[in-house]
Write a structure and sequence with these properties.
Largest interface: A-C, 43 and 49 residues
Strand order of the largest sheet of chain C: 1-3-4-6-5
Oligomer: heterotrimer
Strand content of chain A: under 5%
Structural class of chain A: mainly alpha
CATH class of the largest domain in chain C: Mainly Beta
CATH topology of chain A: Four Helix Bundle (Hemerythrin (Met), subunit A)
Number of strands of chain C: 6
Shape of chain C: flat
CATH topology of the largest domain in chain C: OB fold (Dihydrolipoamide Acetyltransferase, E2P)
Helix content of chain C: 25-40%
């Protein structure tokens, strides 16, 4: 199944069908989620209306972690099996993950100010999520920073895999050390400590974000594949049209033609 | 209605949180879509040049 | 062995080494990763008066005394020990008796804690007011946090190394 999808031509065919479904489904689910989060959900017994920030903060945090895991697994597949699509998937997903991490940090700050009394503290949870954000930025910079895209992909993949150690630290930081951030309410052993009327909007928003991720990932992967095809076509035509000039000057015509 | 938008006194925190989320995610969607359109246009142009009908 | 298996083995080895190294580092530094001390820690560790520290616990019921121009005195407890805290400034919205709190400041020679910042901690429970009222009526409500949550942060503070 995976190896069948790993063929770029087949991927283009399947993703062309899946893309509009993911895109419209994410619009619909997020619209329902926003209604539930902003209007239907009750105010919290302690936090009042400020609790509504949770409905973007928590799903964004889940996405930040899961997309990093996705990037890391795709990087491992790219390193070991040298699947071209795996590398493209990792490279396309990272900016989406960085965006969700930024949303998580910024909305958390806006939530922390009225509830905790501070925009930011250097506790284990907040610091490890900031490290996650920098890992994303480092990966994006590495992957785009090399002239040879294959080399950049390989170096970036190694960074992505090294950064995996940060994921359990983020998840369990609130249990291992005492932090200002409270422990998990939904993904915990035992019953969730959140009322159903607040859990449902949270899960709907999370589903909407997941579909948005899927749609964005497909768009970005298709873009990446198109751009690789463009690069290959330009190289080909440059090589066949002007073999003379290349030999005259002793330099390949590649950089000038590429731009 | 204005009581709703006041968010129990937390309006200055709740609305910016949602606005910021919409801006960041919406910006990423627009940027990605723009690049996607460009890539399709460029690819079609190149393919026409390589194999003119 | 094929190249593929070689790479896979190398990857597994690398990840194991990395995981092991991280676990060791975290164990070694875990006492520095603690965001706050509990009142018991504070008593046990004899922290010098000029060092800025953070202490965390619950605001003791009935201990909050508000003075003139936003001065406030209260006690932070972890169930075993408590510390008197004085503070001058604006309190966060979640500050109330029975609620988790983190105070940053210095221990005065007299044994009171002079806080320069007060941060409120909230537990991981999210519920509408009616549900809380119903739970309280039926006697299923635990004050100060969910069943294990009430004890968890405080236990973690008493035994910072894990």
């Amino acid at each position: 199944m995976l190896t069948r999808l790993a063929n770029p031509a087949r991927f283009m065919r399947i993703s062309a069908v899946a893309l509009p479904w993911c895109a419209w489904a994410s619009c619909a689910v997020i619209a329902v989620g926003l209604y539930l989060a902003l209007i239907a959900a009750p105010p919290d017994y302690q936090q009042g209306e400020a609790v509504r920030i949770m409905y973007v903060h928590v799903p964004a945090a889940w996405m930040a972690l899961n997309i990093y895991l996705f990037v890391a697994v795709a990087s491992a597949v790219a390193l070991v099996w040298r699947h071209p699509l795996a590398e493209i998937a990792a490279r396309s997903a990272a900016p989406i993950g960085a965006a969700f991490t930024f949303v998580c940090l910024a909305s958390g700050s806006l939530w922390g100010r009225p509830m905790w009394g501070t925009w930011w503290v250097w506790d284990a949870r907040l610091t490890s999520v900031l490290v996650l954000f920098f890992l994303y930025l480092g990966y994006i910079a590495l992957v785009n920073g090399f002239d040879d895209p294959g080399r950049g992909g390989r170096v970036g993949s190694i960074l992505a895999l090294v950064g995996v150690v940060n994921l359990p630290i983020i998840k369990f930081s609130v249990d291992w050390w005492n932090t200002l951030h409270q422990p998990a309410s939904v993904l915990r052993f035992g019953k969730p400590t959140i009322a159903l009327s607040m859990l449902v909007p949270l899960l709907v928003m999370a589903l909407g974000f997941m579909l948005l991720f899927a749609a964005l990932l497909l768009v970005r992967m298709r873009t990446e594949l198109n751009e690789r095809k463009i690069r290959a076509l330009r190289l080909n035509s440059a090589a066949s049209v002007r073999p003379k000039r290349r030999s005259e000057h002793g330099v390949p015509a590649r950089p000038a033609v590429l731009r | 209605m204005s009581a709703y938008f006041a968010m129990g006194g937390y309006a200055v925190f709740v609305w910016p949180a949602y606005a910021l989320t919409a801006t960041v995610l919406g910006g990423l969607v627009l940027y990605s879509w723009q690049r996607y359109r460009d890539s399709i246009r460029n690819l079609e142009r190149l393919q026409r040049q390589v194999s003119p009908r | 062995m094929t190249r593929k298996q070689q790479r896979l083995g190398l990857l597994a080895l690398g990840m194991t080494a990395l995981g092991g190294a991280t676990a060791l580092v975290l164990t070694a530094f875990s006492s520095n990763l603690v965001f706050f001390y509990s009142p018991s820690d504070l008593k046990a560790q004899a922290i010098s008066a000029d060092r800025r520290v953070r202490i965390g616990g619950l605001v003791e019921d009935g201990s909050v005394k508000r003075g003139a121009d936003s001065r406030v005195a209260f006690r932070i407890t972890d169930g075993k020990t408590d510390v008197a805290v004085v503070y001058h400034g604006i309190l966060p919205d979640l500050f109330r008796e029975g609620q988790g709190v983190v105070a940053e400041g210095k221990l005065e020679p007299g044994g009171a804690f002079d806080a320069s910042t007060i941060l409120a901690k909230h537990d991981e429970r999210y519920m509408p007011r009616e549900v809380v009222d119903a739970l309280k009526k039926s006697g299923h409500w635990q004050e100060g946090g969910a069943s294990e949550a009430a004890a968890a942060p405080l236990n973690a503070a008493a035994t910072p190394v894990r």
